[in-house]
Write a structure and sequence with these properties.
single chain; mainly alpha; 2 domains; 3 helices; 0% strand
Amino acid sequence: MNSLVKRWIEARDRKPETEYEEAKRKFEMAMGKPFITVCLEIPAGFEKFNTEFLKLENDQQFHEEVLDLIKKRLLLDSRHKSS
């Protein structure tokens, strides 16, 4: 019974933080460039590269590669829509 109450309280505690994060995101979007947040899990079978995977979060070259991928995807999507 105690663990049930604890889970209920923890779930309630997260809600205001979620509302704050949502309001903060809307404000940042209105004030600057649009952005997305993506949560990526390490691919199956690559668990032995855990350390390298975690370093990607702060790897500037990786971020540039992701931006290039986004550009290609957006251009490809715009070409398919105009066809």
